[in-house]
Amino acid sequence: MTTFEHLDVLIVGAGISGIGAGRYLRTELPGHSFAILEARAASGGTWDLFRYPGIRSDSDLHTFGYEFKPWRDEESIASAPRILAYLRETATENGLDAHIRYHHRVVGAAWSTERARWTVDVQRTDTGERTTLTCGWLFSASGYYRYDEGFTPAFAGRERFRGTIVHPQHWPDDLDHRGRRIVVIGSGATAVTIVPAMAADAAHVTMLQRTPTYVVPAPTKDALAKALRRYLGEQRGYAWTRRKNITQQKIIWGLSKRYPTATRKLIRWVNVRRLPPGYPVDEHFNPPYDPWDQRLCVVPDGDLFRSIRQGRASVVTDRILSFTENGVLLESGRELEADIIVTATGLNVLAFGGVPITVDGTPVRLSDTVAYKGMMLSGVPNFAYAIGYTNSSWTLKIGLLCEHFCRMLHHMGTHGYDICRPEVADPHMPTRPFLDFGAGYIQRVVDQLPRQGDRMPWLTSMDYQSDVRVLRADAVTDPELHFGRA
C-alpha cells in the first residue's frame, strides 16, 4: 500500500497571499501541519515574476502590507525589489522558509468525502517527477492570473516588424532601450509605469492607447505616516496610518460611485494642472466610463505627466491597423516608428491556478459554483481561496480571510468535525458575476468564474468595514455552512 505524506493544510502559492496564510496558521494554529507549494524557484509571486522597468505597487504599502508587520520604508508607493524584500523578511521572521517547497506545481486535486481529505497530485517543475500528497484542507493562494503567459491580442503584420517586441510579463534581462524609440501599447497600470521609467533613457516613448484611463498622481512618500511613526512609535504609527488610508480609500471610492460626474471633473482638473498648457486632455485622459468602473491608475509624484511635460513621452489615442517593418500603422493613417514595441496589453486570468479539482469523482465546474463569503465554493468541501479587493489594496482582504479561515479550523477541531461544505439553501437565489468589475482581463473570462449571490453569505464583498464584521467579528457558523465527520 502506497503511503502519502498527509498535512492538515496545503497552501498553493508562495506569493503575498500564501505567505500571509502561512503566517496566520503558524501563529493561530501552531499544532496544525502545513506546507506551501510554489511552482517557481523563488517566493514573492507577482513581485518576483515581473521585471519590467519601474515595476511598483499601485497601492500604498501601509494597506498593501500585512496588518501584523509594519511597513518601515519611507516610500509608501514602493518598487518591486522593496516589496519582495518585505515579503521574504516576513517569511523568515515567521519561520515559513522551511515550509515552502519550490518547483512544486499542483496539477490536480481530488476530494473524498469518505476519507475527508484531498489527494493532491504534484509535479516537480525542475525534474518532472510526480508525487502525491494528502491534506485535510486545500488553500489556493495562487492569485488570479496565468504566470507563464500574458495576454496579447492578435496584431496583423506582427511578423513584419524588424525591431523587438516584448510583453511586460516576460521582460528580457538584456533588453537595452537607451536611445531607442519605444511604443508602449496599453493604458493600464503597467503601461503608465513603464512609460516614465523607460523615458528617462530612451530617445522617446509613445503610449499608444485605444481607450483612455483615469490617471491620478499620488505622493511616493506619506508625510503623515512619517510623523505618526515618529510620535507614536513604529507599531502604533503604522496602525494609525493604516486606518487613515483605509478610510481614505473608502471615501474616494464611495464618492466616485455616488458622484461620478463630479469625480470625473476633479480628476480632469488635476490632469490639466499636471500637463503642458493647451494639452488635449479630453482626447487622451477622458475615459468613456465612470471612475472606478475600472481601477484608477496611480502615478507616483505624477511621473507620467512629468515625462510628457519634458517631451520625453507622448500619448496617442487611436486603433492599430497593423504592424509594419518600422513600427505601427494606425487607423488614422499615421505610422508610429519604433525600435521596441512593448505590448502592455494585460493578463490572462486563471482562477485557482487552473488546477482541475473533483469532488467524489465529479469534476468541479467553477461557473456552476457560488462563492461563500468570498473565500469558499458551494459544494466543494474543505477548500478555501484568497482573492483580494479590486477597489482597494489587495492584501486588506487577505488578512481577514486568513483570520476567518483559522477560526473555522479551530471551530472544527474543538467540535471534532473534519468536513466543512457550503451549500446554497435556496436553489432559486439570483446570481451575478463573481466580480463586478469592468476590466478587460476579467470580462474575457467572467463566464468561466464562480458566481456570487444576492445576499450574505453568498456575496463577494468589496468593502473592508463590511468584511471586518463578517469575517472577524461574526461567528464562523452559518445555516448554509455544513460541518460533518468522515
UniProtKB/TrEMBL annotation:
Q: What's a single GO MF annotation on this record? A: monooxygenase activity
Instruction: Report the domain of life of the source organism.
Output: Bacteria
Give the InterPro entries listed for this entry.
Answer: FAD-binding_MO, FAD/NAD-bd_sf, Flavin_mOase-like
What Pfam families does this protein's entry cite?
A: FMO-like (PF00743), NAD_binding_8 (PF13450)
User: EC number(s)?
Assistant: 1.14.13.-
Task: Give the range the annotation lists for the signal sequence.
Answer: none
Using the UniProt record, name the top-level EC class of this enzyme in a single word. Answer: oxidoreductase
Key words of the record: FAD, Flavoprotein, Monooxygenase, Oxidoreductase
| Keyword Transmembrane helix on entry | no
State whether keyword Acetylation applies: no
Look up the record and name the cofactor or cofactors this protein needs: FAD
**Family recorded in the similarity comment:** Belongs to the FAD-binding monooxygenase family.
- For this entry, the protein name equals Flavin-containing monooxygenase
